[in-house]
Sequence to fold (167 residues):
Amino acid sequence: MYAIALMVLLVGGYYIILYYLNHRTKTDLLAKNKIIDRPNKFFEQEHIFITKIKTLSKIGEVIDKNVLNEYKISFEPNYEHHAIVFKNHAISGTFGAGIILVGNEKKLFKYKFQIEAWNTVRGALGRPDLYGANILLTAVERAFLKLDPDTEVIRKKAIYMKKPRLF
Fold:
């Protein structure tokens, strides 16, 4: 009887500690202006940026690489193919992402940012990856807005042929 009560206490304590650490991390990142408070499913969306910015190299010049380096997110431009690839190299990191040019019309260019691969735990992105992906998306959004304050962002559910997984 005491063993069951002790087990319940330990498991409950474990989840309380995890909740506290998660809340503290999120609060800290928000206070440092590294992330924007978003719904947790943002990583399953396509983020379409409609802008006057003609080339991704301009985005590559202004994106905050110090923030990316701090959180071990690599920046791998391929301007010949109008793309930038990002990979999370943190110990618990499992996501990759990219920006590509998807079209232009009427002097406006469309770029798509999307998380391309991730591992899930019980159907959800792990907290370190969730924060890393949010840090990356926030840096991308700020780069677009720095160059073109009139940039419009359209978000829609991404359609995958199969569930993205790294492993």
The two ends are 41 Å apart (CA to CA). Residues 38-157 form a domain with the TATA-Binding Protein fold (CATH 3.30.310.80). The mean pLDDT is 84. The beta strands are 45-51, 73-78, 83-88, 96-105, 108-117, 120-121, 124-125, 152-157.
